[in-house]
Amino acid sequence: MAGNATAQDAIFTLREQIAKMEGKALPAAVAAGQADLAARGTQDQRARLPFGIPVFDEALEGGLILDAITEVRSLSMYDAGAATGFALSLASSVEARESGPVLWIADSLLACESGVPYVSGIARFGVDPTAVFHASPRKLDDALWLAEAALTSGAFAATILEIHGNPKAFGLTESRRLNLRAKAAGRPLLLLRHAGEEEASSASFRLLVKPAPALRRRLPDGTMLGGSIGHPVFQLTLEKSRNPAPLSFLLEWNPHDRQFHLAAEPGPSALSWQRPAHPGTQLSASADRQDRPQALGAVVAFERAS
To answer: Where are the domains of the chain?
Structure first.
């Protein structure tokens, strides 16, 4: 990463010198590139939370940034449980390192679709339920104000902001303001977006989360048991990062150790893996069911008129 930054800096310097020799103004692309390079240098020095998975930490350039926005997105409400579980897993990892409670700012409209936080469910992801503060403002403006105040105070180890879709009241301007508050306080903001599309934001990373089946477990006799209840597994697609193309991972979360484990090597095969988490039993169609097509009536032969 340092070699690439040095090479880009040399290119920008050369373009600037050529522009001065020709008596032209500095191209906008060069100015923007220099600003982006300076921002990247600052970002490389930020505190990060490594996951202990070399390939995943390399994709995240060292781990989760602890003073920025990380967006966790789901395609539809069917995947809301997986996205929420992954956000809780991230909050549990941050809580294990940083002291302080966790603030969960929920969307009041989402309570009708995905329900409200459940104490036993929160504990299953390794988060202490007594250290979770839950707020459900009626308006998005109030939720944004609360998230900004929580980040400014620095009293919470992590803040989860849950929103639905792509509301107009939460755009790039609001995202930048929250990101500045997170950077100043040195605390992470986990933006949990349910059933939303990709859009421009100040999030350092954006992760698309889908559910995945639990891994097989080894029985005492050495055989493997599949299709049983085990640790949660998430199918992640790293949509926003410095990587040239999105990367896909299958990560298993161990709530007891508060640690992620790689369930499958990243690559195109994981991206095209669309098997549902619980396919259910495949039953054959009944041969004599009531809704089968009725047979046609008897064919009547008419005498020819001529």
So the answer is: 2-36, 49-216+225-271
Q: What is the pLDDT of residues 169-211, one digit of tens each?
A: 999 999 999 999 999 999 999 999 999 999 999 999 999 999 9
Cβ(49)–Cβ(97) under 8 Å?
A: yes
d(CA 34, CA 197): 30
Lookup: tokens for 291: 């809704």
**What's the chain's Rg over C-alpha atoms?**
26
3-state secondary structure of 92: helix
Nearest to 238 by CA among 213, 264, 211, 204: 204
DSSP state at residue 108? G
What distance in Å separates the CA atoms of residue 105 and residue 158, rounded to the nearest whole number? 11
Global pTM exceeds 0.85 = no
**Of 176, 200, 171, 173, nearest in space to 189 by CA:** 176
| Strand pairing category for 259-264 and 224-225 | unpaired
**What residue spans of 193-296 are helical by DSSP H?**
268-271
CATH 3.40.50.720 fits 49-216+225-271, yes or no: no
Distance CA 50, CA 147 (A): 25
2-21 and 28-44 helices, crossing angle to 10°: 150
* Ordered DSSP codes for 172-202: HHHHHHHHHHHHHHT--EEEEEES------S
Q: Is 282 helix (H, G, I), strand (E, B) or coil?
A: coil
